[in-house]
Amino acid sequence: MDIESLPSSRRRTESLSSHVHKVGVPSPQNLLKDFKETVKETLFPDDPLRPFKDQPRSRKLILGLQAIFPIFEWGRDYSLAKFKGDLIAGLTIASLCIPQDIGYAKLANLAPQYGLYTSFVPPLIYAVLGSSRDIAIGPAAVVSLILGTMLQDEIDPVKNAADYRRLAFTATFFAGITQAALGLFRLGFLIDFLSHAAIVGFLSGTAITIALQQLKGFLGIKDFTRKTDIVSVMRSVWGSVHHGWNWQTIVIGTTFLGFLLLAKHIGKKNKRFFWIPAIAPLISVILSTFFVYIFRADKKGVQIVKHIKKGINQPSVHEIYFTGKYVMKGVKIGAVAGMIALTEALAIARTFASMKDYQIDGNKEMVALGAMNVVGSMTSCYLATGSFSRSAVNYMAGCQTTISNVVMSIVVLLTLELITPLFKYTPSTILSAIIISAVIGMIDIESMLLIWRIDKLDFVTCMGAFLGVVFDSVEIGLLIAVSLSLAKILLQVTRPRVVLLGKLPCKTTIYRNIDQYPDAMRVPGLLIVRVDSAIYFSNCNYVKERIGRWLSDEEEKFKARFLPRIQFLIIDLSPVIDIDTSGIHSLEDLYKSLRKKDVQLVLANPGQAVIDKFHASKLTELIGQDQIFLTVDDAVLKCSTKVAELELN
């Protein structure tokens, strides 16, 4: 629909002109001050030094200690009531973590005790440095698999177990260094380049890969492929169906997997019974171990854990590679696994912080996670992070502070000192069942369907990461996830949306996208477009060409309907937060191209940064200061009046 009549009288023109506001030109900024503000907003958006402002020296010292060690902040208000909640939560997550840790160590191709070590030292370090009240620290399925897969590509964990273990400690050390460095230099925004869709696809694919890997222990297969893709795994499984499967193992695994899934279902249906899925793994381990010992099922081919080394962590500083051919491999593996561990931990911490309505400092969290992994690598631990299943149990058990991690750590210590010999007859199939039941929840079909409904491009990213992990490897899936996330950013940056605007009816002064609002009216003689992005070197040519195509298309439509030709092109710059030199040149070229067609370029609502650069480049002199307006409506009133006058003449 088009506007049929326009104000044309001189009196109306003067009245409208008197109400047109000019675009404000900001005063010149000090270059150093401007640079400092930019750096501050980039690296210190949370203004971490704000609490120190106007404080006495003694108070600043206290605040400094609290900033480094959050325990000094919440520890002042710690009470017996809070300890009660932490004690119950700590005991609950300990019952869950002990069997999980033994299983996750298998995923990393390490001896069972290293999983327990990792739930002893790192949680103690995090309790002092971390700011999340709900996160439960220890080994995690995804990180264990990634670490194990990347390590075994370098060293055979069976034939050369000592060097493999040393490389695991080296990778953990450099993962901690990477995490701490990101926090200290406030570069946490880098992990945000892995989009939510990519994470959903990656985690779902990894969950399937982990579950497939557990078929070795679940079915009692001795000779199993080292590859993780679904084709190789299924070929290995079906290839050993007649000579490798053990029916006693399958019966034990299937029975207890059903029990674990039933327990999880009960806990999900009724939140009051959260403790049932929490203690179900430990009950499964105790019962299955008892049955194997009583019936001596190990003599009938049921594989058992056999031996878990008794005692606490041994120092391992001397085992870390600081020189030699494995150093750079440790750096590479550590950086990749450390970033994934960091992404998982921060996602968990932020989720539960929002549920309890408190804030966490992402950069402090990175430093805390990095410090605990550096210390962990020196005390026979492999890469630790936050576990979602344990953190959920910790939250539902009523944890109040990170003391729940300390309680869990003490229980693990007692287990290492007193109970590990009792795990001798624990069947491997029960550990596989525990891991399968733990990772099933990571296959998030509901989120995938939601991503499909919301954004098809996001769904491509999600499925790319998922299929990369399932059909190739964790590393390829991760590479695809990062690549597609970056590709989406580049696509959005290089191909911004340029839309046609029309005026909403009923005497409004609002101009909106005509595709979204079909009733929006086009103004004869004017073409109004809006650029929904900053204009940079990467997209300025596309913006210019897209506007040119709009102009050609609309001219043809106006001619066909015998409407006045287009005399003014109005660009709404309100969404354009910035423009660079290439963008300025593209507007200059557009202006010159339009002049040849006898069309005037008009700009509306440029922001501070944009108008600053217009004046610095003298673009305002080229276009004309009187062709830059505060609002689209001001520009339309002025331009439509001129169109009407030309029609009368």
Number of strands: 8
Question: How many DSSP H or I helices?
Answer: 27
Radius of gyration: 32 Å
Q: End-to-end span in angstroms?
A: 25 Å
Overall geometry: elongated
> Which residues sit in consecutive blocks of at least 5 with pLDDT less than 50?
1-18
Average predicted local confidence, pLDDT: 88
Summing up helix and strand content along with how strands pair, one would put the structural category as mainly alpha
For the biggest sheet, the summary is: 6 strands, mixed
Q: How many domain regions?
A: 2
* Biggest sheet: strand arrangement: 4-3-5-6-7-8
The quaternary organization reads as: single chain
Strand content: under 5%
**Fraction of residues in H or I helices:** 55-70%
Subcellular location: Membrane
Pfam families: STAS, Sulfate_transp
Organism: Nelumbo nucifera (Sacred lotus)
Domain STAS: 516-639
